[in-house]
From TrEMBL:
<dbReference type="GO" id="GO:0072527">
    <property type="term" value="P:pyrimidine-containing compound metabolic process"/>
</dbReference>
<keyword id="KW-0479">Metal-binding</keyword>
<feature type="binding site">
    <location>
        <begin position="45"/>
        <end position="51"/>
    </location>
    <ligand>
        <name>substrate</name>
    </ligand>
</feature>
<comment type="similarity">
    <text>Belongs to the cytidine and deoxycytidylate deaminase family.</text>
</comment>
<comment type="function">
    <text>This enzyme scavenges exogenous and endogenous cytidine and 2'-deoxycytidine for UMP synthesis.</text>
</comment>
<dbReference type="InterPro" id="IPR050202">
    <property type="entry name" value="Cyt/Deoxycyt_deaminase"/>
</dbReference>
<dbReference type="InterPro" id="IPR002125">
    <property type="entry name" value="CMP_dCMP_dom"/>
</dbReference>
<dbReference type="GO" id="GO:0008270">
    <property type="term" value="F:zinc ion binding"/>
</dbReference>
<feature type="binding site">
    <location>
        <position position="92"/>
    </location>
    <ligand>
        <name>Zn(2+)</name>
    </ligand>
</feature>
<dbReference type="GO" id="GO:0042802">
    <property type="term" value="F:identical protein binding"/>
</dbReference>
<dbReference type="GO" id="GO:0004126">
    <property type="term" value="F:cytidine deaminase activity"/>
</dbReference>
<feature type="binding site">
    <location>
        <position position="56"/>
    </location>
    <ligand>
        <name>Zn(2+)</name>
    </ligand>
</feature>
<dbReference type="InterPro" id="IPR016192">
    <property type="entry name" value="APOBEC/CMP_deaminase_Zn-bd"/>
</dbReference>
<dbReference type="GO" id="GO:0005829">
    <property type="term" value="C:cytosol"/>
</dbReference>
<dbReference type="GO" id="GO:0055086">
    <property type="term" value="P:nucleobase-containing small molecule metabolic process"/>
</dbReference>
<protein>
    <recommendedName>
        <fullName>Cytidine deaminase</fullName>
        <ecNumber>3.5.4.5</ecNumber>
    </recommendedName>
</protein>
<feature type="active site" description="Proton donor">
    <location>
        <position position="58"/>
    </location>
</feature>
Length: 135
């Protein structure tokens, strides 16, 4: 993937991170999705006093992508609030896999800018796909 595109995604994820609503954990996360159509969608985590009702940054960005009319992920960046890679939770791995092929890059970026690239197939081997649904 082109470094300029990755940098644009990183910047979008960092920008989204600034809007995080995380008063309970203080763990601000941002995400940016590049759609197959070349559009960039971002999102942040949104916590809720009823803890299970919060939403991860990746889910917010994917929701923005779908709302924007796109349905396929080319790449995704997840911005950590510290200097450790912030891997997506299991639910978000499944959400990413819903719209991404196994070889789709997932980049975790730390606060200091260190990138950790993997694929969604590495993060979620044997993902549950729509092909497993009965017709």
């Amino acid at each position: 993937m082109d470094n300029n595109i990755i940098q644009k995604l990183v910047e979008s994820a960092y920008e989204a991170q600034t809007h995080s609503h995380s008063p309970y954990s203080g763990f601000k996360v941002g995400a940016a999705v590049l759609s197959k159509n070349g559009n960039v969608f971002s999102g942040c985590n949104v916590e809720n006093a009823a803890y299970p009702l919060g939403q991860c940054a990746e889910a917010t960005a994917i929701g923005a992508m779908v709302t924007g009319g796109d349905k396929a992920i080319e790449a995704i960046v997840i911005a950590s609030p510290n200097d450790e890679a912030c891997f997506p939770c299991g639910g978000c791995r499944q959400k990413i896999a819903e719209f991404a092929a196994d070889d789709t890059p997932v980049y975790m970026v730390t606060k200091s800018g260190s990138l950790h690239p993997v694929t969604i197939g590495e993060l979620l081997p044997y993902a549950f796909r729509d092909t497993a649904l009965a017709s």
